[in-house]
Design goal:
Elements: H1 24-50, H2 55-103, E1 107-109, E2 121-123, H3 125-144, E3 149-150, E4 156-158, H4 159-165, H5 167-170, E5 172-177, E6 184-186, H6 187-199, H7 206-217, H8 224-233, E7 249-252, E8 255-259, E9 265-269, H9 274-279, H10 281-287, E10 294-303, E11 318-328, H11 338-341, E12 345-349, H12 351-355, E13 362-365, H13 366-371, H14 378-393, E14 401-405, E15 417-425, E16 428-437, H15 441-450, E17 456-473, H16 475-482, H17 486-494, H18 498-511, E18 514-518, E19 521-525, E20 530-544, E21 547-554, H19 555-566, E22 567-569, E23 577-579, E24 590-594, H20 599-614, E25 619-621, H21 628-636, E26 642-646, H22 650-653, E27 655-660, E28 666-670, H23 671-682, H24 688-691, E29 696-698
Parallel strand pairs: 3-10, 12-14, 24-25, 24-26
Antiparallel strand pairs: 1-2, 4-9, 5-6, 5-7, 8-9, 10-11, 11-21, 12-13, 14-15, 15-16, 16-21, 17-20, 18-19, 22-23, 26-27, 27-28, 28-29
């Protein structure tokens, strides 16, 4: 977890290129076999004694039993020690990395001088730069590449919007309290921690292991009752006090606020950025010329009042989201560019794989996954593959990336299919991107609540004869009966769906009247007030509600996992920590060092710095008097991928050395070629080896 060989490719991990240790399941199976052998040997000794066999034969059987017991005891102790050692290594790795991040001011706890607030963090200069570069590349990779429509909406959202979306009622996590201290805990976290601790026991039986693994796989879809049963069955207590816990109950995660001085308008800090896109659908469709499919995107802050924030940037109360809403015809979910990504290989953890006996992801191209129906449609598959490519380019190790499909009861009832991009870090597998086919739920929900039609128009190739619902209010009778409420009644009638409209007509015909709910109350509809019928009409098109494919990116979570995948310590000196950032997202692309504090060298270094800045390449000019080796080490801690050194030779032949961070290799480059070389490397148009082939190699200065 804490030492990576120099020169490994971006995003590699120290354990991946070596033979892998046995998994917990492999160890459990091996230990169970050894336990079975001990049991058989014990039975054999008892049988020999019962049959009064020869003493020598019995002694030999006893010796064999003792030997097997000793081997089993040794293996159990080794398995337990290995588990403890692995946990300690992870903790040591996190401590070392977090120390480097905080020391170099990537991010720190907010309001630190007042003791901080859990779940809130401030980004320092390099953290801001990494985040800004990550967001800029996200825009390039998705918004520009796909010609998406970008919007920016307020963080404060009126309650009515979030009622329509279901957040007011259902945006909850299950919480439990210590019955004595009233401390709050997230129920699924307590259950998950206890399950993982029990599964770490090497001597757990195969049947018990399967039961616990199944419970862990289904944890996210537990009802309050099932979660309570799990807490009882596992005998879970409050972590610190060991007191009993209350029954789990839902806790709404939104931050409430009041809009305006009167407090009459209730609002919330938005829990996601998506709703701002949905409520602007009609205007975005008009802006796009009324054409589908199209996608809208937004990057912004979201807020969730987490029950128990933990694990740094992985679970916070304010965070940055980058979300896409791709609007598409519900019956036409093929994607015009799917062929470009069909051969992208993914690690898929499908629903069947999660619930099967092995519980492991499997490799498959996205083309095959869509063809076999594992992924619901081409558009969802296209964004899954594009997400894989995006994460790889910013430095996420593809060997530690998988796409997990939501279990059936884990998905919302309206969703067609949902997958999470999960990245492995020292905390386990972390959901960093959600990709969902949300059908037409969101637009229908806001249309029903706002009484504004959020639909697109489809023109048929040839006119069709179709049965159409006709609702024709009798304005004269309605005006007499309802006076100032006539418009509200008419609007309510016109907003009825086909099923409700026909039911209303049948009720009027059967009972001579029917109740109709309107804003602020209800009215009685009598015969003759409205004509409701199905009629065959010739139509050239129809209105329909589009479906939505939604990729949603958690920027902070992606950054944290990327930090872990990028961090290593140089083997020759454990004090030399390095972040192996991809040049795309590195906070500074290049440092420029005069070898010594000399006027001529300083002038040339300053010229190179200005040339790079003119082309938008961030650089840092360091003219301090410390050795160049120490300056290299200082910039390695910031993850700067390239360094230019101006030395005595530079003043003679106008060449400089360019150093690559991971390998520490250096080459000699003409000053005029520095810009095109750095630009090519930062845009990933060439690897270091490709870009420097044929250039003069420079002996590395002692670091």
């Amino acid at each position: 977890w804490c030492v990576v060989e120099v020169g490994a490719s971006i995003g590699t991990h120290p354990t991946l290129d070596r033979p892998q240790p046995r998994t917990m399941s492999d160890n459990a199976a091996r230990l169970q076999a050894m336990q079975d052998a001990v049991t058989d040997a014990g039975n054999n000794v008892r049988a020999l004694k019962a049959e009064k066999k020869d003493k020598a034969e019995i002694d030999a059987a006893i010796a064999k039993l003792k030997e097997l017991k000793l081997e089993l005891d040794t293996e159990i102790k080794a398995a337990m020690a290995a588990g403890d050692e692995a946990a300690a290594a992870k903790e040591q790795f996190r401590s070392k990395m977090n120390g480097a991040l905080e020391q170099r001011l990537f991010y720190i706890p907010s309001f630190k001088i007042y003791g901080g607030v859990a779940g809130l963090y401030d980004y320092g200069p390099p953290g801001c730069a990494v985040k800004s570069n990550l967001q800029a590349f996200w825009r390039q990779h998705f918004v520009l590449n796909e010609a998406m429509l970008e919007v920016e909406c307020p963080s404060v959202t009126p309650e009515v919007v979030l009622k329509a979306s279901g957040h007011v009622e259902k945006f909850t996590d299950l919480m439990v309290n210590d019955v004595v201290t009233k401390d709050c805990f997230r129920a699924d976290h307590l259950v998950e921690e206890n399950l993982e601790r029990m599964l770490a026991d090497p001597m757990i039986s195969a049947d018990k292991r399967k039961e616990l693994e199944d419970m862990l796989a289904r944890l996210e879809e537990f009802t309050p009752e099932e979660m309570g049963d799990a807490i009882t069955k596992l005998a879970i207590k409050a972590p610190e006090t060991k007191n009993d816990l209350t029954a789990p109950y839902p806790f709404n995660l939104m931050f409430p606020t009041q809009i305006g001085p009167s407090g009459a308008l209730q609002g919330y800090l938005r829990p996601e950025t998506a709703q701002g896109i949905f409520v602007n659908f009609r205007d975005l469709l008009y802006y796009n010329g009324g054409k589908l499919p199209f996608a809208a995107a937004q990057i912004g802050q979201s807020f969730r009042n987490e029950i128990a924030p933990r694990a740094g940037l992985l679970r916070v109360r304010e965070f940055t989201q980058a979300e896409i809403e791709h609007f598409v015809h519900p019956e036409q979910k093929d994607h015009s560019r799917f062929g470009e990504v069909a051969d992208v290989m993914l690690s898929l953890f499908s629903r069947d794989a999660q619930l099967g006996a092995v519980k492991k992801p499997f490799p498959m191209t996205i083309g095959e996954a869509v063809e076999k129906g594992i992924v619901a449609n081409q558009t969802l598959g296209y964004f899954i593959a594009r997400t894989q490519t995006f994460l790889e380019k910013i430095g996420v190790n593809p060997e530690r990336l998988r796409f997990r499909q939501h279990l059936q009861h884990e998905m919302a009832h309206y969703a067609e299919d949902c997958w999470d991009a999960e990245i492995e870090c020292s905390y386990g597998w972390i959901e960093c991107v959600g990709l969902a086919d949300r059908s037409a739920f969101d637009l229908k929900a806001h249309s029903d609540k706002s009484k504004v039609e959020l639909t697109a128009y489809e023109r048929f190739a040839e006119p069709k004869m179709v049965e159409t619902l006709v609702v024709e209010p009798n304005k004269k009778d309605m005006g007499k009966a309802f006076k100032k409420d006539a418009k509200a009644v008419t609007d309510a009638l016109m907003a009825l769906c086909q099923e409700d409209a026909l039911a209303l007509a049948a009720k009027v015909e059967a009972d001579g009247k029917a109740e109709l709910k309107i804003e602020g109350g209800s009215v009685e509809i009598l015969p003759g007030m409205v004509k409701i019928a199905m009629e065959t009409q010739k139509v050239s098109g129809r209105n329909f509600t589009p479906s939505v494919i939604e990729p949603s990116f958690g920027i902070g979570r992606i950054m944290y996992c990327m930090f872990e995948h990028s961090f290593f310590i140089r083997p020759e000196d454990e004090q030399k920590t390095v972040f192996r950032f991809s040049p795309i997202i590195a906070p500074i692309k290049c440092t420029i060092f005069p070898l010594v504090n000399d006027a001529g060298m300083n002038d040339l270094a300053g010229t190179i710095s200005r040339v790079l800045a003119t082309e938008g390449i961030s650089s840092k000019l360091d003219t301090t008097a410390v050795s160049v080796g120490k300056r290299y080490a200082r910039t390695d801690e910031l993850g700067v991928p390239f360094a230019v050194t101006v030395d005595h030779r530079s003043l003679q032949d106008n060449t400089v050395t360019v150093r690559e961070r991971d390998s520490c290799d250096q080459v000699r480059v003409a000053v005029g070629d520095v810009l095109p070389l750095i630009k090519k490397l930062c845009n990933l148009r060439a690897t270091w080896e490709e870009a420097t082939a044929g250039l003069e190699k420079q002996a590395a200065a002692s670091d």
